[in-house]
Each structure stands twice: as structure tokens, then as C-alpha cells.
């Protein structure tokens, strides 16, 4: 049985990546690797943030999907993470995909041309309709218990 995959348009913005498009590395991969679209190395100093171009844009054009940008675990152990922890690409965004990398280590980190810098995962989205109330219809045992209220 073949599963129908949602279709997402991909527009190449920089010809440098024409043969380096996002790929699933294995059949079980949840995300595609994003690469640094640069001809020269980029040095990311300690405690610095840099916006890295990927050289492409996508058109999800389906409000029940979004793309999430996640850090690569191999870079995370070296202190290279996403500046915003996780990036959200809305279904109606059609600009270049860029990755904000942050160096939380004490050493310079060199981003080599076309190196893998993050991963992009497509996820379902559910939008809600607000129902304004004075009191909640049903209450829970937790109620208004705040952060850390359910454990030690």
C-alpha cells in the first residue's frame, strides 16, 4: 500500500544548491537536512547568532501543515543550537528558509559551505475557534495550579 504524501513546492533561490536540495537521509527519517548555502566558511563566535541562508523557499499552501525547523543533535553537543530553539514555517510563508544559529560554546565554530545545519520536519496544524466564557464549563483537578504544581 502506497501512502499519498502531501505535496510542497520548492523554489531554488540560489543556483549553488541546485544539486543539494533537502533530502530524507533514510526511509525512517522524520526530517530533511537543511544546508548552509554559502560559498565561503562562516565563523560563528562564542555567544553569537548568525542568520544562515539555505538558498530555497517553500510553498506549503495547506493550512493543516507547517514546517518546523529543529537543531541537529550532532551540532547541539558542540554548542551550536537554534537561536529561537524551534522555528515555525507557516503554510502561507513563501520567503527563503533561513536558520538562526547560536553558538553557546566558548569556541569559534566554523560553518563550512553546504554543511548540514538544521533539520526541517512537516507537522499537522489544527487551528481553533475561541469560545469566550466567564467560567469554564468543565474544571480539572489541577485547575489553576501553575508551573511545577504537579510534581517535585
Throw out a few tags for this protein:
152 residues; mainly beta; four-stranded antiparallel β-sheet; 3% helix; globular
- Secondary structure class reads mainly beta
Q: Calculate the mean pLDDT score and round it.
A: 93
* Percentage beta strand: 35-45%
Rg, rounded, reads 19 Å
Give the helix tally.
Answer: 1
By DSSP, the count of extended strands is 10
How far apart, in Å, are the first and last alpha carbons? 47 Å
Low-pLDDT windows of residues = none
Helix and strand sequence: EEEEEHEEEEE
Topology:
Blueprint: E1 9-12, E2 32-35, E3 42-44, E4 49-59, E5 65-70, H1 73-76, E6 80-82, E7 87-89, E8 96-103, E9 109-111, E10 116-124
Antiparallel strand pairs: 1-4, 2-10, 3-9, 4-8, 5-7, 5-10, 6-8
